[in-house]
């Protein structure tokens, strides 16, 4: 296959017009482990670590449904500096609950298990994660690395490159944690605008994949509210009621000023025709699309 014939899942998704809204995976806990060597295709699972420690951390992560990500700074690899780990928890109050530590030996990672049993510290700024996991999917590296560079130049202390976060075809993907907000279809310029908006309490709908504490149709409803009434903060909209009938949802959303006080949003889901959704996956798969059919104020 020549370079011109090479398949890139992100280009194909843009050509198809794949919808971003409603594609953020559910979750509220993140485990970050700084690893400066090569990242295996399966991330933490593929690391050659002490088996006992690795099994302990993996079991503890599974118990709380935490997403485990390897991280590194863009372009900065100082072997002398201590490697870091973190446990991040989403808090619906808007507080950033985080616990950070360092590790030099594999056994030091057992500290993560203890951290999973504590609420975490308050007062830390959010973490900006850029998927640049080229061994998992080509588009994550091709599109993620320039975004990692641009964001690191702007916010060097907040930004980390990370392993697979899901949704390869939406590369470049950025996750702000522990806020639990996914952004996709980013490039260097749009990523800076998206993160700047996020940090100043003005989340835009354009590149929003969803909030990880919501289920896909709820994510689509909030994205529609942001698209219709303008950017808003992470907690300016809340889901208060959701009902379903077959492939349709009715979702009641409340808002804070200056946005509407309440919205009734209807969402329809359907499966797209089968297509190749990742660069490496040769099988054809369909995806679920969430379409907002109506928004009513009141």
Task: Write a structural description.
The structure is a single chain. By secondary structure, the chain is an alpha+beta fold. The chain has one domain: 3-Layer(aba) Sandwich (Glutaredoxin). 23% of the residues lie in helices and 28% in strands. The protein has helices at residues 9-16, 51-63, 111-116, 138-154, 188-199, 216-229; strands at residues 29-34, 67-72, 83-89, 97-103, 127-131, 159-162, 174-177, 181-183, 208-211, 237-245, 248-255, 262-271, 288-297. The strands form 2 sheets. A 9-stranded mixed beta sheet has the order 4-3-1-2-6-5-7-8-9. Strands 10-11-12-13 form a 4-stranded antiparallel beta sheet, with helices on one face. Helix 4 crosses helix 5. It is globular, with a radius of gyration of 19 Å.
Secondary structure: helix percent: 10-25%
Task: Assess the beta-strand content as a share of residues.
Answer: 25-35%
Largest sheet: 9 strands, mixed
State the shape. globular
Mean pLDDT: 94
Fourth-tier CATH superfamily name: Glutaredoxin
Structural class: alpha+beta
**Number of DSSP helical runs:** 6
Biggest sheet: strand arrangement: 4-3-1-2-6-5-7-8-9
Rg measurement, Å: 19 Å
Which consecutive residue ranges, at least 5 long each, have pLDDT under 50? none
For the record, the count of structural domains works out to 1
Assembly context of the chains: single chain
Return the CATH topology: Glutaredoxin
Number of strands: 13
Element-by-element helix/strand order = HEHEEEHEHEEEHEHEEEE
Report the end-to-end length measured between terminal Cα atoms: 56 Å
CATH architecture: 3-Layer(aba) Sandwich
CATH class: Alpha Beta
């Amino acid at each position: 296959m020549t370079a011109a014939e090479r398949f890139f899942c992100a280009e194909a998704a843009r050509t198809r017009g794949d919808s971003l809204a409603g594609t953020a995976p559910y979750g509220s806990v993140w485990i970050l482990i700084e690893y400066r060597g090569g990242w295996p295709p399966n991330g933490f699972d593929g690391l050659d670590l002490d088996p006992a420690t690795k099994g302990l951390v993996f079991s503890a992560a599974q118990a709380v449904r935490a997403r485990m990500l390897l991280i590194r700074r863009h372009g900065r690899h100082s072997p002398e500096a201590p490697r870091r780990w973190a446990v991040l928890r989403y808090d619906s109050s808007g507080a950033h609950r985080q616990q950070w530590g360092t590790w030099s030996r594999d056994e030091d990672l057992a500290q993560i298990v203890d951290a999973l049993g504590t609420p975490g510290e308050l007062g830390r700024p959010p973490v900006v994660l850029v998927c640049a996991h080229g061994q998992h999917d080509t588009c994550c590296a091709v599109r993620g690395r320039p975004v990692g560079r641009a964001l690191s130049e702007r916010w060097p202390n907040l930004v980390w490159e990370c392993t697979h976060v899901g949704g390869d075809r939406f590369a470049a993907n950025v996750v702000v944690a522990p806020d639990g907000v996914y952004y996709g279809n980013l490039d260097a310029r749009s990523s800076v605008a998206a993160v700047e908006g996020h940090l100043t309490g003005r989340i835009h709908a354009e590149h929003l994949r969803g909030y990880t504490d919501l289920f896909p149709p709820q994510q689509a409803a909030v994205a529609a509210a942001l698209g219709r009434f303008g950017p808003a903060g992470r907690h300016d909209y809340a889901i208060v009621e959701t009902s379903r009938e077959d492939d349709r949802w009715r979702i009641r959303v409340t808002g804070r000023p200056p946005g509407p006080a309440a919205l009734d949003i209807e969402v329809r889901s359907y499966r797209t025709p089968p297509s190749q959704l990742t660069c490496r996956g040769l099988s054809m798969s369909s995806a679920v699309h969430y379409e907002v059919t109506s928004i009513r104020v009141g």
